[in-house]
Structures are given as structure tokens and as C-alpha cells.
Amino acid sequence: MKKRVDRICSFLMACLLLIHISCSENNSVEDPRQELPENIQSSLQVLYPDEIPQSTEQLIDPNTSEVCYYVSFSDGTYFVFNAAGEWTSVYCYTKVLPVSIQTTYKDAIRQIETETASPIQALDKTLYGIAFGLEDQRWLAYSTTDKKLLGEEMEHNTGLQPNEYLPGPVYFFVSSSFDAEIEHVIVPQDENQSDFRYSLWLSNHMVVDFNQDNDWLEVRHAEKAYLPDSFYSLLPEDVVEQLTEDCPEKNIYLVRQIKSEQTIQYEFETDDQKSWCYAIPNPDYTPPTIFPDKGIRAFIDKYFGITSSVSMVLSLDTKDRVIVSLPNGFNFTVNMQGEWINIDNHNLGWSALKEELISSEILKAVEEKYQTTITSITRPLDQLQVQYMLADEGDQVYYVYSATEFVAQDSPRTPYEKAYRYIRHHYPAEISFNLSYEQGRYQTTLEDGTLLLFDGKGELIK
């Protein structure tokens, strides 16, 4: 707790530099209590009866500009009082709390003693109740209203600003949404518990709770005052419109946000114990992709007769196509209706097909005209007439209209495509592998542990 003492000393020195109203530490004064206002003398008589202070200081708090009184004793105990004569801070060097403090906060002390082995050494009054300072330098937050331990207060009295230790999204949401300062941040003592949350207490008595994903869970006014109109601008327009119709007076003091995979639910509570609940679709929800398994299996049965396992992945480019990899080195692509769009043999020939996919006369005509070998066939389904795009390993694309007209066009393969096609050609049984790009080259590790490396042009590094 040495840091606590150092901080108090620093605070006092700062105050003294600003304004030093009086100092009653004087050999000519037998009892410094006589220099204090009567209400503080009365408070001391209750808090620390029959103990004579070593010194007293009347100061101006530089943060609030309010008068405060610092009273210290020879055993290391000190009190800080406000002008109303109420104590705001207590520190006990001996770790033996004044009897009056023990009596007033016996329930809180009992809870703390049950949950921690570290002695209580200090108390600070706060917006939520009392912050109990432990010898291990933690500060535990206790609600005097709810009579329960709330958790641990982060960075209490350390001088750190909330933006220095809060997650960015949490700090930004609160600082940009509420016209108030963050006074306290309370977290569970066990950060691994499933309902972990940040509970932020603001200077206007608003409390905002966040989960570990930085989503706000609850906004409430600690004293059940109405939420400001500005808050409703943060809610979905449909929800606000419905709430305005159901509760035009908007005497709302609490709002909860409950997110599920498919919906977001908003619960509102009023000061007269009424409540409303509205649910909207979660805009971040993506329905699960249902592959056209029946169409894919029918295609495999018809053209390949393969019964072994295959790989099916959603195309990263369009999200509405499924790429199927077969253990014979072939890939084919279908749409969500199961209609085939492309088939690629990765230069392994077409002999694996049980029957023709398109007329062999088309393939023969193109191969003879351009002196090449077709390895990929694409059938654009958005064309009004039958059309095929035939590609060879040499990166030429040939358009075939009604099987009579051919047009050649350059279409270079990317380095990734070159590396991928090499693997599918030489290792056809590898139907699922991750081809990553690191430090200017592509690489993958096959199921048998073989490492394949490709340069930035997609060529195998031998």
C-alpha cells in the first residue's frame, strides 16, 4: 500500500502548492481538533474517539475546487473529510479499521474477508458506494445500495485515464455517446468467468456494462433518472419508433441489449415498473450455407462414378458457388441449384469421364484449330444461348458459340492458380490443402508431410 501513501502525499503537496489555507500542526495547539469545523470534530468523535490527531490540513481539492480536510494520526491512520463533515477517505496503516467503520460496513467486510485473504487497509466513498483498498493493492467495489460486492475497480486512484486501459471500442462508445466523465471501471474479480463484463460508472450516475466482446449489455441510471434523449439515437430506428408509440413519455431508466445469433433484443424498464421488449434481426447474422448435395452427388455419379470422399468449399469470389475437389485430380463448380458451371481436369485428360460433358466434336475442333489441349470447360449460365469457354494449360481462353464460332483470347493464370494446379495435377488425392503466401512465396504441407514451395510466379522451387 506504499503506492497509496505516495499518491496521497503527492496529492497533498499539489494541493498545498495551489492553496494552503491553514496548518494546525503547531506546538502551541494541544489538540489540533480544535482547529477543525465542529461538524468534523463530531465526525471524528464517532469515527476515532479519544484519539488526538497528529496534524490537520484544510485544503482545496484541485480536481473539484471544493474544500477538504486531511486529518492524520501518529499510528499512520488518516481521514479525509468534505466540508459537510462526511469522511470521503480512510486509511489505516495498522490494518485495524476503526470500530465505527467495522460496525457500519460489517456485511461488506464479511464478504471481502470470505473472498480474499488480503487485509482491508483503506476505504474511499464512491458513486457506487465504497471502494475497499486491500493490502495487496487491489480495490474492491461494494454497492451500499444493493449490499453486495460488485467486483474489482480498475486503476482506482492510480492517475491512469480510462482511455489508457479500457478496450478502444468500449472507451469510444461511452466517450462519444454520453456527456459525462468515466469515474469508475469495475470488473469481476475472476476475469475468466463466463459473464465477465466491464461496468462503467459515469459522473452523471449513468452505468454502462460491456461484455468481453466489447458489446454493450446494459445502460441504466443508478438513481433511476430518465435516460437522456441523445441515447436513443444509438438504437435502431424501428425500435425507437415502436417505443415512442408504446411509451411516449419515455420514462425509461434502463435498457438491455441481448444479442443472439439471429436476433438482437432490446428490453426497456421504466421508473413505474413497466417494461417493453422488441426484437430485430441481427444484421451480422449469416444463414448457414446449404450445399446442393443432391445435385453434386448426381453429377459425380453420372460423370465419374466415384464413391470416395470429396471436398466441397464455398467460392471466395462469389459466395454462391461451390467448388468440389475429387480424388482423381478433377475440380468442378456448381451453383446453389446444383447446376454445373465449370470443370477442370488439371491437365490430366478427359478419359476419367464416364460420358461426354459437351460434344467431343467441339473439343476436337478447338484443339485442332489452335493446336492445343483443352483442360477446363466453363458454361456461363447467364447467357441466352449455349456458350462454352474452353481453356488450355497455356492460358488461352476460347469462346464457342453454338459450337460453330471460335475466338481466342489471352487470360494468364495467376501465380496462385499455377501453384494450385501443379498440386492438383501431381497430387490428385490431395483434395483439401491450404496454400499460403509468406515472404514472397507460396507453400503447403501435404498429408504425408511433404512440403511444397513455389516462388512468387507460382513456379515450383525444387
TrEMBL record:
Endpoints of the signal sequence: 1-24
Pfam families named in the record: PepSY_like
Q: Which residues form the Putative beta-lactamase-inhibitor-like PepSY-like domain?
A: 69-101, 198-272, 324-382, 419-462
Would the keyword Acetylation turn up in this protein's UniProt record?
Answer: no
The source's domain of life comes to Bacteria
Q: Does the keyword 4Fe-4S apply?
A: no
Keywords of this entry: Signal
Q: Which InterPro entries match?
A: PepSY-like (IPR021533)
The protein's name: PepSY-like domain-containing protein
Q: Which organism is it from?
A: Parabacteroides faecalis
